[in-house]
Amino acid sequence: MKQEHKVALKFVIEGKTHETFDQYKTGAALKQLAGIPMDTELYLSIAKPYKDELIENDTRVDLARPETEYFFVKKKLRLSINKTEYTWYKQYIRGAQIRELGKIPAEDNLFLAIEKPFEDELITDDERVDLARPGKEHFFSKEKSADFTIIVNATPKSWKENTISFDQVVVLAFGTISNRPETGYTVTYSRGWDPKPEGTMIKGSIVRVKNKMVFDVTATDKS
């Protein structure tokens, strides 16, 4: 049965202070609160000469004792993602987990930094990286190089950028773009990205490019 304390109880997990009105918390609840995986060993710091206490997931800890309780993990590994420091509690980490931890979008490539003269290593989502090797692993993301085929006025065109502007579409269609006030252009597109896979572009607008995206361009002379 859950017991509530009248005054907020403070306790520390991995150097971060938490508060609760619950007198007792299980090891599992403490791990969940601190974002520590359930299969990681969590310890309660005990004054010497006694040994620190291993807190199992189902162990109930009394947080209302006179002194502040300090919990910690003995086995933890450091890594950086795009120059931000993170802690991981297992020897291995998958590419997908690195993406989630560093909030890296799926459309970006993920790399493990390697000392020169060797090349940085591309990390796929299902690849495992050993974080227990000497030194700290540094990961970084880069926008994938674009290589699209788009259809402009029924003609396939190669495009190597992630976006395309109104003027660039017109140039692809006609080889040049006229600045004469009496010349106007109409640009429509289809097979684009959701939530707006089709639409009309106006002067100055930019759309995100998708492979096999279709553009129709017409020129009108107002003179």
How would you portray this structure in words?
The protein contains three helices and 21 strands. With 223 residues, the protein is mainly beta. The protein has three domains: 4-72, Ubiquitin-like (UB roll) (Roll); 77-143, Ubiquitin-like (UB roll), CATH 3.10.20; 148-221. A five-stranded mixed sheet has the order 2-1-7-4-5, covered by helices on one side. Strands 9-8-14-11-12 form a five-stranded mixed sheet, covered by helices on one side. The longest helix is centred in the last third of the chain and has 9 residues, at 166-174.
Mean of the pLDDT scores?
A: 90
Order of helices and strands: EEEHEEEEEEEHEEEEEEEHEEEE
Unreliable residue runs: none
Shape: elongated
Helical content (DSSP H or I, runs of 4+): 10-25%
**CA gyration radius, whole angstroms:** 28 Å
Largest sheet: 5 strands, mixed
What kind of assembly state do the chains in view correspond to?
single chain
Per DSSP, what share of the residues sits in E-state strands of 2 or more residues?
35-45%
Distance between the termini: 85 Å
As for the number of domains, it is 3
